[in-house]
Amino acid sequence: MGRRAAAIAGVSEWKPQRRWDEPLFGLDALARLGAELLDDSGLDKSDIDGFAIVGVPEAPVLAPSAVAEHLGLRSRFNERVDLGGATPAAMVWRAAAAIEMGVCQAVLVMCPAIPRPSQGRDGSRGRDGPGGREGPQEGPRTSSRPIYMGADAWGSPQAQFEVPAGLVGATPSYAMIARLYMDTYGLDEETLAKIAVESRYNAQANPDAIFHGRPITLEEVMASPMIADPLKLLEVVMPCFGGAAVLVVSAELAGRGRHRPALVTGFGEEMTHRSLTSMPDLLDSPISGAAARAFEMAGSTPAQMDTAQIYDCYTITVLRSLEDAGFCRRGEGGAFVREHDFRYDGDFPVNTNGGQLGFGQAGIAGGMTHVIEAVRQIQGRAGERQLRRCDKAFVNGNGGMMSEQVSLVLEGA
Amino acid sequence: MVRLARDGRSIPDPTPVTAPFFDAAKDGRMVLQTCPRDGPFFYPRARCPHCWGADWRWTDASGRGTVYSFTIDRLGHDPTQKALAPFVIAIVTLDEGPRAVAQIVDCPFDEVRTGMPVEAVFDLFQPADGAEPVPILRFRPR
């Protein structure tokens, strides 16, 4: 049941890299991702009549028209989305909704996350590594330092009331969610560490993962340096460069493609806040509304999902997301993590490609890795980590401080 | 760009909307906007976030609250405060209801707890641009 008008017909995902040495402009990166989506799906460029992007460094404003021009498209759906880590999942449902409305039939959803080529004469490399001043390009920057995420703009509430308090970046905010959760429900640090260990296990079955070949133990997670109590280094994603894209098309077009269509049968989106300080309840995120509507639209339940691909910027994000999405009740997340095996060969496979914790977080493409892994599992293309059965997958995209939330239910046709 | 103190740390850059909060804070007083229908709100803004009314008034607040949650920032995620790390960041539920985020001072790290009663203090910092000193909200145990 559920919506069956649109499906993901193809994917492209670049191997994440700590350094990105190839000079590649954003517009050209989009053309490359587009070509790869056509190759993967078996569809033709003449089918394409829409796209969704984050931003284009070479076109800080009027970015969509720059993309139509650069890629030689006559496009009817020209969308730019600004929802942090939830952006890729949000693009997918916007494309699916537009397709169902008859606005368009085939939408390129593209998230390159690479450094801007240097203006130096040789142009041989990006300016800085990840986490450096340049960071992955995610569209026009209004801030001198990416870690402020624009919060240092004049007049911004964050600049006046949060940055001076030191509430900058995401880690201290997620740490405060973890602290309140521990003090409210008695969660221990080992339970969170188990999530990191199982993600890393899954990454061992993914040759593209940044941590492929580097499994970790519970003891190693527990012994890793404290970053913001109670979160430790190995519970935090590794920032890197990369890119990812999916092709969302009408069910009819998807039927002409090369792979089993992954139908977008349900979706929901919700948000209440930008800053953690203004989150109405640190232990009740807008996922609860987004996921409930996604499941209702799909006509399915959490228990019917063959896998969950959960945005995992931190270990605590996974536990809290599973609760709010309805896989267990609030306060029972710790027991759920302890009682279930999230490995691809376990009883409740979560983030089977390693998630961002094991695969790496390539900027804005990080949220796409969850969408793509769900599609790969549904299409039977997950290699060594392929689930025996995968007809239904839940995907959650999470932005900011558990702020922007987008849930998807994907089903094999 | 964040505004910097003479010692290099980020400090608030008040706007016409937020200036009354910072002006009171310079005298060590905490004030909140209070809406006649929806009560006090924070951070300061031109309209009540609940009813969008503009008929709020500045009211004196107790400056008292309890720690809702906290973390010890070991790295100093704010690049301007890296050298000051580690420090405790806490979200505090004010007795009047709204929440505010600030660092916890005058308390050993291992003694900070969720639910801990705290009170506001305002420390003045000299801006690098030579203007009047600017207050930063902190909380200490009470």
Commentary on this structure:
The complex is a heterodimer of chains A (413) and B (142). Helices cover 32% and strands 16% of the residues of chain A. Chain A has 413 residues and is an alpha/beta fold. Chain A has a domain at 173-236 and 268-358 and 365-412: Thiolase/Chalcone synthase (Peroxisomal Thiolase, Chain A, domain 1), CATH 3.40.47. In chain A, helix 6 (189-203) crosses helix 10 and helix 10 packs across helix 11. By secondary structure, chain B is mainly β. Chain B has one domain. Chain B contains one helix and ten strands, in the order E-E-H-E-E-E-E-E-E-E-E. Chain B is globular and about 45 Å long. Chain A binds chain B through residues 143-145, 147-148, 152, 154-155, 157, 159-169, 171-172, 175-177, 179-180, 183, 225-231, 275-278, 282, and chain B through 1-3, 9-15, 18, 43, 45, 68-79, 81, 84, 87, 89-91, 99-103, 113-115, 136-137.
Strand percentage of chain A = 15-25%
Could you give a short account of the major beta sheet of chain B? 5 strands, mixed, barrel
What is the rounded distance between the termini of chain A?
11 Å
Largest sheet of chain A: 9 strands, mixed
Q: Please, how many helices of chain A? A: 13
What characteristic shape of chain B results from the CA principal axes? globular
Strand order across the biggest sheet of chain B?
Answer: 6-7-8-10-9
Over the alpha carbons, how many angstroms does the gyration radius of chain A reach? 20 Å
| CATH arch. level architecture of the domain at 173-236 and 268-358 and 365-412 in chain A | 3-Layer(aba) Sandwich
Rounded mean pLDDT score of chain A? 94
